[in-house]
Design a protein that fits this description.
single chain, 202 residues, 62% helix
Length: 202
C-alpha cells in the first residue's frame, strides 16, 4: 500500500504520473454553468491508498451502467469533458440543471428558475438548445407557465435516453476512457503495489 510520495519507488511514481496524464485528458477546464452546480470539476482526495482504490472502482463502475456514471461526480465531470469534445454538452447540462431544479422548495424560485432553464435549453434557437421533438417542447412550454418540480420531467427523460443510447456508448469506446479504465483495472489487480494517485488541480 502506498504511503507517502517520499516512500514511493520510482516505478510507482512513474505510474502515478502516467495515470494523472490520462486523467488530464478529461480535465480540460470542464466548467459547467451555474445552473448545474459544482459538478464540472473532479473531486480529488489522494492522501490514502484506500481512496485511490475507491477511485479506481469508481472509474470502472462508469461502464457498468449509465446510472452509475451519472451518480458519480467524477463520472459526470469526465462525461461532460468528453461531450465538449463533440460539441454536445447541452444535453448533460440540461439534465443536471433539472436535477438541481427539482431540489428547489420555494414556489417563487421554481417559477424563476423554470423560465431560465426553458430560455437556455428548450425554446427554439435557445443558446444551448437540446434535441427534443416539437410536442415535448410545447408540453414543456405549457408546464413552465405553472411551474412545479416535475415540469421538465418529460424533456429531461428524453435527453437522458438520447445520451444513454448515443453519447454514452461513444464515451465508453473513447481512447481516453479505455486507457483510464485499463489503468484503474491494473491498479485494482495489484493491491500490494501502488494504486492510482488521483490528480489535484494546479
Amino acid at each position: 500500500m502506498c504511503r507517502t510520495l517520499a516512500a514511493f519507488p520510482t516505478t510507482c511514481l512513474e505510474r502515478a504520473k502516467e495515470f494523472k496524464t490520462r486523467l488530464g485528458i478529461f480535465l480540460h477546464k470542464s466548467e459547467l454553468g451555474s445552473d448545474t452546480g459544482s459538478v464540472g470539476k473532479f473531486e480529488w482526495s489522494s492522501k490514502h491508498g484506500k481512496e485511490g482504490r475507491n477511485f479506481s472502482e469508481d472509474v470502472l463502475g462508469w461502464k457498468e451502467s449509465f446510472d452509475l456514471l451519472l451518480s458519480s461526480k467524477n463520472g459526470v465531470a469526465a462525461f461532460h469533458a468528453f461531450l465538449k469534445t463533440e460539441f454536445s454538452e447541452e444535453n448533460l447540462e440540461f439534465w443536471l440543471a433539472c436535477e438541481e431544479f427539482k431540489k428547489l422548495r420555494s414556489a417563487t424560485k421554481l417559477a424563476s428558475r423554470a423560465h431560465k432553464i426553458f430560455d437556455e435549453f428548450i425554446r427554439s434557437e435557445a443558446p444551448k438548445e437540446v434535441n427534443i421533438d416539437h410536442e415535448t417542447r410545447e408540453l414543456t412550454r405549457t408546464n413552465v407557465q405553472a411551474a412545479t418540480a416535475a415540469c421538465f420531467d418529460v424533456a429531461q427523460g428524453k435527453t437522458r435516453t438520447l445520451m444513454e443510447k448515443d453519447s454514452y456508448p461513444r464515451f465508453l469506446k473513447s481512447p481516453a476512457y479505455r486507457d483510464l479504465a485499463a489503468q484503474a483495472a491494473a491498479a485494482l489487480a495489484s493491491p500490494s503495489s501502488c494504486g492510482p494517485v488521483e490528480p489535484s488541480h494546479t
